[in-house]
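Section handout, structural biology tutorial.
Before the tutorial, make sure you can parse a SMILES string by hand: atoms, branches in parentheses, ring closures as digits. In the record below the ligand is nicotinamide-adenine-dinucleotide, and the chain has 353 residues. In the tutorial you will relate the predicted structure tokens back to the input. Do not try to memorize them.
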Amino acid sequence: MTSPRFGVAALRSLATAMLEAAGVTTPAAELVARSLVAADQAGIYSHGLLRLPLYLSTIAAGGIDPTSSPEVVRRHGAVTVLDGAAAFGQVTMQRAVDLAAESARTHGIATVAVQGSSHFGAGQFWVNQLTEQGIAGILTSTTGPIAAPFGGSRPILGTNPLTIGLPSAGPNPLVADLATTAGAYGKVVAARNEGTDIPAGWGVDANAAPTTDPAAVLEGGALLPFGGHKGSGIAVLLEGLSAALTSAAFAFRTVDIWQDQSSRMNTGHLLIALDLAAFGDPGAIRTRVAQLQDEVRTSNPDGSVLSPGDLEHARLTANADTVELAASTVAELRLLATQHSLPFPAPLPEGTP
Ligand SMILES: NC(=O)c1ccc[n+]([C@@H]2O[C@H](COP(=O)([O-])OP(=O)(O)OC[C@H]3O[C@@H](n4cnc5c(N)ncnc54)[C@H](O)[C@@H]3O)[C@@H](O)[C@H]2O)c1
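Predicted structure of the complex:
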């Protein structure tokens, strides 16, 4: 299928209008729209506008409360516990980032533990906000039950993302942002929508047999952790950090919104912020981070090696004004626009950068 290109501003406006039509307040709608389009701009199509139809049906079914706002339920020194009150994960995460940055500037290090939340999209959208302020960030989250631990056949874990970002004196921060499954769930959904296979090693079917059929993974199968037993260990620990520490629900106690859109999943997130200024001269730390990035990039003389985060940064720069969307996502959004009597933006002529 071809992938048409659209203006970024037009996509943000369309997504904002659709969310407003579903009862989301304008500031929240703008934030969710910006986060989804930013994921597409970074080439993280699994967490871009592909998610909007699901978000809208989740509001309609009661899984997300479009009018509620997160509330601080506990403070202890540099630790804040935030209850998302079933609001959009993006709304709750924005509050968590703001609280973490403020508290890290006071204490040097701060933790915001989030309960009662929902899906927050791509982790780097949040951690990048910290690195822009000279603060390093570590973020993780629960999701619905879709991953089997190493050797297991039942999906009891989430895809438990881990995002770690360090400010740098170089052109972009050092950011690793990944699902702890071999492939992100959204990439499996995208493959099913586009009618393509997933890579071998990503998942098993309902009989725990290896498969490259995305539908077999999504319908009763399971995703597998990255890195065998080591990745599995990290995924289990992230489940503990983002559910046990926050009093959110373990993935295995939830029904995923892809299965039941009325499911209030009580998603948990853990955000740790480290203010560089508390550790020494922030400029010198940034320079050391840039040295590390350059050493990674030049580790092969042919210049082919990327430092974590380089790929997404390059795409964000290239897609600053216009962005490509998968044809299946365009078809779904076009249908929704028609249902809401909203004009759908015209695709840009082929060859538009
Ligand atoms: N909200 C949620 O519940 C949730 C759950 C799971 C994943 N996610 C998000 O899904 C997104 C995609 O995750 P993924 O696991 O598919 O990521 P990915 O495999 O595309 O990338 C993972 C990391 O590897 C780096 N990378 C990619 N190609 C590289 C290369 N050739 N050389 C060096 N580094 C390279 C990237 O910069 C990135 O930091 C992330 O944004 C994550 O936050 C969110």
